[in-house]
Design a protein that fits this description.
The complex is a heterodimer of chains A (178) and B (321). Chain A is of the alpha/beta class and 178 residues long. Chain A is built from four helices and eight strands, in the order E-H-E-H-E-E-H-E-E-E-H-E. Chain A is globular, with a radius of gyration of 16 Å. With 321 residues, chain B is of the alpha/beta class. In chain B, helix 6 (179-190) links the parallel strand 5 and strand 6. In chain B, helix 1 packs across helix 5 (147-161) and helix 5 (147-161) packs across helix 6. Classes of the chains: A alpha/beta (178), B alpha/beta (321). The interface between A and B is medium-sized, with 25 and 31 residues.
């Protein structure tokens, strides 16, 4: 199980993304972060912390659960319903630039669901996508605006992101699936 | 505030129907309540709708009058984007002599995915669950069970107290005819609450103590130190049965007044499944007072029913393949 990103590299990648966000949006005016549950949420909080350290501004941060918008819901051959968790977006997204944050970008289907979910909350001025890892193999026309690391993978592999807040350590590993 | 024992460890319901609390394990109850927490947030959005049950058809089949439960299910179904169809008995062909089973078989020919039903006969939804293809949700059967009411009551209690385990819950009123009582007793017992039941001797079912309930005819004893007081409706239609002398005397002996409430814990909550008879089982000052969560119960009913519909819909996908 080779590790492809350790805690240091992850920290640097997120700091670099924070700088890119500031450069591209010319500051934090009208920005808001929305993390996709589960691991997008702590990543969004870390980026918010970096933005505060660099710029001194607090960027509002929310959490989005996309379960009820999934396109594979009710189509799974076996297995239990995915657990639904709370969506918490304690600010209006109208006319804001929303930074949507997730850990791994793969088929793009999660992001499709997240876009539908977000638009039910209002009409943002723009939505930009932030991912820690882009592993390729898109099935929908979706592209990230900020990428921590591009990681070439085969469809038979799985990418495991572990974060301090949830898993007790920071790293990214590739695992072979049988 | 909530301990790990209060958070569901399972992610599925064992049955594809919801017929009663009697069939649910503690884990399944936790799963429904946890899912309802996520569902509740949807009701606070500008667009109160998610696409989850798009293309699914739910029939609400009510053989007994109901405003609260039927509209609550309808709102829950619409918030999940299901197509809904509500049939009330007075307008249906049941009045022309059709049997329950024939009515439902005809409805099934239109391929609904779920049927939410209320019937005055205990066990009617169980019969349909055996004989029909659709998933059946019991919205109240006779004097038997009303599972979604007990679930929304538990959800409301948990929201206020952070737990169910170890709470003293007093249920006061017509215990004989109440399916709300039965479902609540089963659920609260299973989750470790201490349940007290109080009502006039003529309306106390003899077998109640067997369910692990403390029975009393003194409301003061029932309310003493209670965390939750749940008032049940005294059904006006029972008056002719001479169960109680008059509504006035009932209020004197069993009505919940601000004076009686002082015996309860300072953070007590007052619940009522509705419809309320003010001045019969509950004083208006209590019903509208600061301890009352009666309107929250109505709002929470939608979230709990969304959770049940969502969890049962997943089951269907399992069985179709």
């Amino acid at each position: 199980m080779p590790s492809v990103m350790d805690a240091d590299r992850m920290g640097r990648a997120l700091t670099r993304i924070a700088h890119e966000i500031l450069e591209r949006n010319r500051g934090t005016n009208e920005l808001a972060l929305v993390g996709i549950r589960t691991r997008g949420v702590p990543l969004a909080r870390r980026i918010a912390r970096s933005l505060r350290e660099i710029n001194g501004d607090d960027v509002p941060t929310g959490a989005l659960d996309i379960t009820l918008y999934r396109d594979d819901l009710m189509r799974q051959p076996v297995g239990p319903q995915p657990v639904v968790r709370r969506t918490e977006i304690p600010f209006s997204i109208d006319d804001r630039r929303i930074l949507l944050v997730d850990d791994v970008l793969y088929t793009g289907r999660t992001i499709r669901a997240a876009l539908d979910a977000l638009i039910d909350f209002g009409r943002p001025r723009a939505i930009q996508l932030v991912v820690l890892v882009d592993r390729g193999h898109r099935e929908l026309p979706i592209k990230a605006d900020y990428v921590g690391k591009n990681l070439p993978t085969s469809p038979h592999q799985s990418v495991q992101v572990r974060l301090q807040e949830i898993d007790g350590q920071d790293d990214v590993a590739i695992e072979e699936e049988l | 505030m909530r301990t790990s024992a209060d958070i569901a460890q399972t992610s599925r319901l064992r049955s594809r129907h919801l017929l009663g609390i009697a069939d649910l394990e503690a884990e399944e109850i936790r799963l429904i309540l946890d899912t309802a927490e996520a569902m509740k947030e949807i009701g606070t959005r500008p667009i109160k709708k998610v696409p989850t049950l798009r293309g699914r058809t739910v029939v609400n089949l009510f053989f007994e009058p109901s405003t609260r439960t039927r509209t609550s299910f309808e709102v829950a179904e619409k918030r999940l984007s299901a197509d809904t169809l509500s049939i009330a008995v007075a307008t249906s062909s049941v009045t022309k002599g059709e049997t329950l089973l024939d009515t439902v078989r005809n409805l099934e020919a239109m391929a609904p995915d779920m049927i939410v039903m209320r019937h005055s006969s205990s066990g009617a939804p169980h019969l349909l669950a055996r004989l029909c293809r659709s998933a059946i949700i019991n919205a109240g059967d006779g004097m038997h069970e009303h599972p979604t009411q007990a679930l929304l009551d538990a959800f409301t209690i948990r929201e206020h107290k952070g737990r169910l385990n170890g709470l003293k819950v007093a249920i006061v009123g017509d215990l004989q005819h109440s399916r709300v009582l039965r479902s609540n007793v089963l659920l609260l017992n299973r989750m470790g609450a201490e349940v007290w039941a109080c009502g006039p001797a003529t309306l106390l079912p003899a077998e109640l103590a067997r369910f692990g309930v403390r029975v009393t005819t003194s409301i003061d004893e029932a309310v003493d130190g209670a965390d939750v007081v749940m008032m049940l409706r005294i059904q006006q239609e029972r008056m002719s049965g001479h169960y109680i002398p008059s509504t006035r005397e009932y209020f004197t002996l069993f009505g919940l007044t601000p004076e009686r409430l002082r015996r309860a814990r300072p953070d007590v909550i007052i619940m009522h499944p509705g419809p309320m008879n003010r001045g019969v089982e509950i004083d208006s000052d209590v019903a509208d007072g600061p301890y009352s969560v009666i309107l929250e119960q109505v709002a929470n009913g939608v979230a709990v029913r969304m959770a049940v519909l969502y969890l049962l819909a997943g089951h269907e996908a399992d069985t179709e393949r």
